[in-house]
Write a structure and sequence with these properties.
Layout (H helix, E strand, L loop, with lengths): L1 H37 L3 H15 L2 E6 L4 E4 L12 H8 L5 E6 L12 E10 L5 E10 L1 H51 L14 H50 L5 H32 L8 E4 H18 L3 E5 L5 E4 L1 H18 L5 E9 L2 E8 L21 H6 L6 H11 L3 E7 L3 E9 L5
Parallel strand pairs: 7-9
Antiparallel strand pairs: 1-2, 1-5, 3-4, 4-5, 6-8, 9-10, 10-12, 11-12
Helix pairs in contact: 1-2, 1-4, 4-5, 5-6, 6-10, 7-8, 8-10
Length: 454
């Protein structure tokens, strides 16, 4: 399409130049020959016609008012009536000069019947303004047409080559652009079928690389979350199954031995009560974590005194510590006002101190300290228990994680207490960390902002 338009523009320009040149020459010649034609001066007309034909490089003919050829520079069409449109236009329609291009006819030189010719006619006018005849100039334009056809052919070839190159480039760029998208689509489809381990190759640069990296990060989080969920369900099921199994065994024993001594029956009932308390604790912890995961656990901050909260928590846990011959000591300022959800902070502090009591040997001391540092309140719980091995420290706040699994079950631990501590502290926009030396004890440090931002 573009090649055709360009060819038309070039051909129109070349033909306009040719038409203008031939028309001016023929009109000028018609003006020169008109007086001699009126006088029928054939000798002069013949001489001038041959001379002009040689100069103009074509065939010249003089026709009368009826269209008959009176003079022909080639001398072969004398007396022939011409029916060329250009002759008819200048003689019958009183038009000015007229120009046309067509296949050669009898007006063309012999042997050129298949060539293209141009014919330009201009009227000869006498002194009274009457058209007495016309000058017809016929020349070959085959060379021009051949050149234009060559130009068109070359343009078509060039545009075809450009189009093919453009298509090839488009296909290459399309594959470059759509290739990563296709891979990402296939990966998403595989993930939709349950394969969360699949990843997208991170290649190239720019937005597609960022998209692939972001997708892989999301996929990693989803896989980790799915693994955590599966592990959580497995661990929760196991933790619930343990007290339920114990309860079932003790109940079956009581049913099978109706004559069991009263003292032994009371001991069984106490063990069953202990298992029920343990089961209730697991369920409550699971409900707390579920609310946190679903963001259903709301924070209700209000003015409070952290020191009073610590004293209240120690009062609750002191009987259990005294039973183990442990001492709970507190190093507190007179007051440490702050804003926070006292119920949730008390649960976090209770879990920390309860954990220290359970894992510290009998007769050891446990220290709780609170102080203000800048805009934060710092709370520490120090025990002198067995400590935590270095390889276990990164996982100590994970759900159901235990350093000593057998000992944890003996003490009634579920592996959820420290996870709840971290969740409660994070809910208050704080942090909890631990430092421990194996065989010497551990220090849990809680850092809370004095003003909790909504």
């Amino acid at each position: 399409m573009i090649a055709s338009l360009l060819t038309d523009l070039v051909s129109n320009y070349l033909f306009e130049q040719r038409i203008r040149q031939d028309s001016l020459s023929v009109e000028k010649l018609a003006t020169t020959l008109a007086p001699f034609f009126s006088l029928a001066d054939t000798d002069t007309l013949h001489t001038k016609l041959l001379s002009a034909g040689g100069e103009m490089g074509g065939r010249l003919m003089l026709v009368d008012a009826e269209g008959k050829v009176q003079l022909d520079s080639y001398g072969t069409l004398l007396g022939v009536r011409l029916q060329l449109p250009q002759i008819l236009a200048v003689l019958m329609e009183n038009a000015g000069s007229d120009y046309g291009i067509h296949r050669a006819s009898t007006a063309a030189p012999e042997g050129d019947a298949d060539s293209y010719i141009s014919s330009c006619a201009a009227p000869m006018v006498d002194d009274q303004g009457n058209v007495i005849g016309a000058v017809l100039f016929i020349s070959s334009v085959q060379e021009l047409m051949t050149s234009l056809e060559g130009v068109q052919s070359r343009m078509l070839s060039a545009f075809a080559a450009v189009a093919m190159a453009a298509m090839a480039a488009a296909m290459i760029f399309s594959r470059i652009i759509t290739g990563p998208i296709s891979r990402l689509t296939r990966t998403i489809q595989r993930m939709g079928r349950g394969d969360l381990s699949v990843r997208v190759p991170v290649r190239g640069s720019g937005e597609m690389r960022e998209l692939a990296s972001a997708y892989n990060t999301m996929a990693q989080k989803l896989e980790t979350l799915d693994q955590s969920r599966n592990q959580f369900v497995s661990n929760a099921s196991h933790e619930l199954k343990t007290p339920m199994t114990s309860l079932k065994i003790m109940l079956q024993t009581l049913i099978a031995q109706p004559e069991m001594p009263a003292e032994l029956r009371v001991e069984f009932m106490q063990d069953m009560d202990h298992e029920i308390d343990r089961l209730t604790g697991i369920i409550n912890d699971l409900l707390t974590l579920t609310k946190m995961d679903s963001h259903a656990l709301e924070l209700h901050p209000a003015p409070m005194d952290l020191c009073q909260l610590v004293q209240a928590t120690l009062r609750r846990l002191r009987p259990m510590a005294e039973k183990r011959k442990q001492t709970l000591t507190a190093s507190l300022p007179d007051a440490l006002p702050m804003t926070g959800d006292s119920a949730k902070l008390e649960q976090a502090l209770y879990n920390l101190v309860d954990n220290a009591v359970k894992y510290s040997p009998e007769g050891e001391g446990i220290e709780i300290a609170a102080q203000r540092e800048g805009r934060n309140a710092i709370l520490t719980v120090t025990d002198h228990g067995p400590g935590i091995p270095a390889e276990d420290l990164p996982h100590i706040f994970d759900r159901f994680y235990r350093v000593d699994k057998a000992r944890s079950r003996d003490t009634g631990g579920t592996g959820l207490g420290l996870s709840i501590v971290r969740q409660m502290v994070t809910l208050h926009q704080g942090t909890v960390t631990v430092e421990s030396v194996e065989g010497k004890g551990s220090v849990f440090r809680v850092e809370l902002p004095l003003e909790v931002k909504p």
